[in-house]
Every structure is written in structure tokens, then in C-alpha cells.
Amino acid sequence: MKKEISVIISTYNSPEWLQKVLWGYNTQNYRNFELILADDGSKQPTFDLIEQMKKEVFYPIIHVWHEDNGFQKSQILNKAIEACTTDYILMSDGDCIPRPDFVEQHIKYREENHFLSGGYHKLPMNLSKMITKGDIYSNRCFDLFWLKKHGMKTSFKNLKVYAKGWFSDILNFLTPTTPSWNGHNSSGWKRDIVAINGFDERMQYGGQDRELGERLVNYGIKPKQIRYSTVCLHLDHPRGYATKESIDKNKNIRKETRTEKKKWTPYGIVKS
């Protein structure tokens, strides 16, 4: 059976976190998907994990890898986009555990000439480490009482964990956040992403996903807010690759994209 949706997961030398994420996709209610791992140069432990997980999970895993040359996520994501065999692409990260209805909700809300903008719920490091295979397969890790019992602080943002159906639709409508392409939880039609030439490979850490979304909007694709309908738990991690230089460079590229209404990047999938 031809797959209906491609899930791209970015990863880099984090096999412990990646395993939890792959377990999460093994709990999905909607099963007709392929999973593309966009690997920014991980070492052997990640390769070993992938071979192990291929024997455990129901979905096909396609491993797209290149040599480690610093933070080059935009490059590997473009290669992963090319590797997708379906018409619709969902992107997330190798530190985001999806709720069992994650892929299903993206399928439900997808729409021509739109992209979907989801959110995440960030966990502290102690909870990130604590979550086990059993917690994921039993869906305990998405139980608000279980999370609070293990140290998650009370917050309005906790609604993301358990909001479903009409309640999540109301919260999506009421949220003041402008929908954007978020690397941890967004989806769109492959033809639209290819039409703007994918990610700008000049961009390293900081906003390369948002810039792609801004070019999609310039191209005429409308963003659709579903941050309370598609839920993933964001595992904590250090961010040693975030430098002021890369962030400032990316801000300038984004400013140019917005002010000049750019749709196409010459530094994307096709090099011009």
C-alpha cells in the first residue's frame, strides 16, 4: 500500500532521545506513514539504534545521513524532503515524543493551499530522562496527573497535553500566537515546499524553519493554527550549537525574506 504521509524527523547524536521518539511513532493510531530520519552526521550509536528499531516498529524507516560538518540541519532536511515518497510531509524533531493521535490529526486538518502549525509541550530534564518505553507505550507520559506527580509545574500551557476534540479547536481559535512553520511540529504539501526550493542552506541554528514558513506565505500558502490539536512532548537538551553569529545571520536572512516578499531561495534543494 502506498504511504499517505511522510514524517521527517531530524536528529544528531542523541540516540537515547531518538529511541523514545521512535517508540512514540510506534503508538500512532494512524499507521499509513513512512518515517524519514534527517541525520546531520550522527556517529555509530545512532546507526546501531536505527537497525535495532527497524526490527521493532511497524513503519518503514529511511535513514538520510551526511558527514558531520557542524550544524547543517537545513541541508539534511532538504535531502530528506527529496527522499519522501508521498505528497504530504510532516516535520518534527528527534527530541519530540508524539501523542498517539499526532499523525492522525495532521491528516485530519490538512488542506489544499495551507500548511499546519503545531506546538509542543516542553519537559524539564528530570522528566525527559525519566520517561521509559512503558510510559510511552501505555500513554502515561501524556497523562497530566502523572506528569505533575513527577515534577511538572502547573501552567496554562499544560492544556496542550490533554486537549482534544472541540476543546482543542476552541483553544486553537483563541490562541494569540501567529501560526508559523515550526520545525518540531508542522506539515504541508511536498509540492508547495519544493516550489519554494525547501530550506535556505545558508541558515544554521535559529529560525530556518520560520523562514521556510515565511516564504510559503509569500508563495500564497496560508498557515493554519493547530497547536492544541497536535501534541508532542519536547525532551530537554543542551543547545551548544546556538551562537550569536548564526542567530544574527539568520535574522538578517529572515528580514530580507519578509521585506522583499521572497518565495524562492537559490540556496535550497536546487542550487542556482
The secondary-structure class comes to alpha/beta
Strand content: 15-25%
CATH class: Alpha Beta
Average pLDDT for all residues: 91
User: What letter string, H or E per element, gives the SSE order?
Assistant: EHEHEHEEHEEHHHHHEHHEEH
Helix content: 25-40%
Number of strands: 10
- Structural shape: globular
At CATH's second level, what is the architecture?
Answer: Alpha-Beta Complex
Largest beta sheet: what is the strand line-up?
3-2-1-4-8-6-9
What does the main sheet amount to?
7 strands, mixed
- How many whole angstroms does the radius of gyration measure? 18 Å
Pfam family, one: Glycos_transf_2
Keywords: Transferase
Organism: Flavobacterium sediminis
Protein name: Glycosyl transferase family 2
Overview of this structure, please?
It is a single chain. By secondary structure, the protein is α/β, with parallel strands linked by helices. The chain has one domain: Spore Coat Polysaccharide Biosynthesis Protein SpsA, Chain A (Alpha-Beta Complex), CATH 3.90.550. Helices cover 39% and strands 17% of the residues. It is built from twelve helices and ten strands. It has helices spanning 15-25, 44-54, 73-83, 102-109, 125-130, 133-137, 144-149, 159-162, 165-174, 190-195, 208-218, 244-259; strands spanning 5-11, 33-39, 61-65, 88-93, 96-98, 114-117, 121-122, 186-189, 222-225, 232-234. A seven-stranded mixed sheet has the order 3-2-1-4-8-6-9, with helices on both faces. Strands 5-10-7 form a three-stranded mixed sheet. Strand 1 (5-11), helix 1 and strand 2 form a beta-alpha-beta unit. The longest helix has 16 residues, at 244-259.
